[in-house]
Each structure stands twice: as structure tokens, then as C-alpha cells.
Amino acid sequence: MEMEFIKKEKNEIELKIINEDSSFFYLLENIASSKRDVEFVAIKKGDHLSNEFYFYLKTKDKSAKDILLECISEAEETVFSVINGLEKVTQDI
């Protein structure tokens, strides 16, 4: 997986992600969209021939970096919760 910043400002972050599944970033987008300080969040796919996409986050007052880190933390909790739930459900199989 490769990642690089396209834009890195106080209230805006744009990441280019190459050779990675976008599922985790959709989770980040979903979490960020519920935050009051987020003005805009989106994932933009590259062309169909490339294996890349872009994650864009724009905030109102709070730092985009801080919001992104909050979202990553919440996403991590969500993923671990799903894993624990799956482990419990599959114990009886």
C-alpha cells in the first residue's frame, strides 16, 4: 500500500491511496460525515485502469488532522467490535 499527501493544510487533507482496498476509508468517510466540525468528506475513485483512489477531508474550525485521527480511532473501535462479535457468533459452529 502506498499513500501520499496531495494536500496537507490546517483545515484540508487529501490523500492518494494506491494498491489498497477502499473499505476502511469508506468507514472513515462515514464516521467523519457525522462530525459537526466536518464541512466535507469524500472518496474519489481514480480511473478504472489504475488501482488508486483519493480521500478528501475539509473541516470548519478544528484541525483536519485532529478530526482524521479521531475518525481513525473510532474506526478501530468499530472494527474490533465487529471482530469480537464474529468470534462470539462463530464459537458455536
Notes on the structure:
- With 93 residues, the protein is α+β, with helices and mostly antiparallel strands.
- The protein has a single domain, classed as Gyrase A, domain 2 (2-Layer Sandwich).
- 41% of the residues lie in helices and 32% in strands.
- The chain has two helices and four strands, in the order E-E-H-E-E-H.
- It has a four-stranded antiparallel beta sheet with strand order 1-2-4-3, covered by helices on one side.
- The termini are far apart.
Q: Characterize the overall form.
A: flat
Average pLDDT across residues? 94
Number of strands: 4
CATH class: Alpha Beta
Strand order of the largest sheet: 1-2-4-3
Distance between the termini: 34 Å
What name does CATH use for the topology? Gyrase A, domain 2
* Rg, alpha carbons: 15 Å
Assign the CATH superfamily.
RNA polymerase, RBP11-like subunit
Q: Structural class of the secondary elements?
A: alpha+beta
Give the amount of beta strand, in percent.
Answer: 25-35%
Low-confidence stretches: none
* Total of domains: 1
Number of helices: 2
Helical content stands at 40-55%
Can you lay out the helices and strands and say which pair or pack?
Elements: E1 2-8, E2 12-18, H1 23-33, E3 38-45, E4 52-59, H2 64-90
Antiparallel strand pairs: 1-2, 2-4, 3-4
